[in-house]
Amino acid sequence: MGENKSVKEKAMDGLIWSGAAVSLLGLLGLVMSIIRVQRARKAGLSDDELRLAVQKVLPLNLGSLFLSVIGLMMVIVGIFLG
To answer: Quick one: 26 exposed, middle or buried, by C-beta within 10 A (0-12, 13-18, 19+)?
Structure first.
């Protein structure tokens, strides 16, 4: 027979799944930043140019890391409160 979930359980399930989605979005951003830095390294840039390329990727890297952490926090809160 079908499960009857309370409103609280449905809300916590939503929090868990949305947290997982936010974490995956952050992970995608981290992969993108890794790819950009690898391309810059393979391009044979000078030290200053490489440093500039890495500095351009840094906001994406930090933002992605922030999204991953927030998403994982959402998952943990959903599990604890669910």
So the answer is: buried
For every residue of 31-68, which 3-state class applies, written as one string? HHHHHHHHHHHHCCCCHHHHHHHHHHHHHHHHHHHHHH
Q: Phi and psi for 46 in degrees, rounded to 5?
A: -70, 170
21 secondary structure, DSSP code: H
Sequence spans of domains, the chain: 7-81
Q: List, for residues 7-20, the tens digit of each pLDDT value.
A: 888 888 999 999 99
pTM of the model: 0.82
CA separation (Å) from 18 to 42, 44, 46, 47?
Answer: 36, 40, 42, 41
What is d(CA 13, CA 31) in angstroms, rounded to the nearest whole number?
A: 27
Does residue 2 register a pLDDT over 90? no
DSSP 29: H
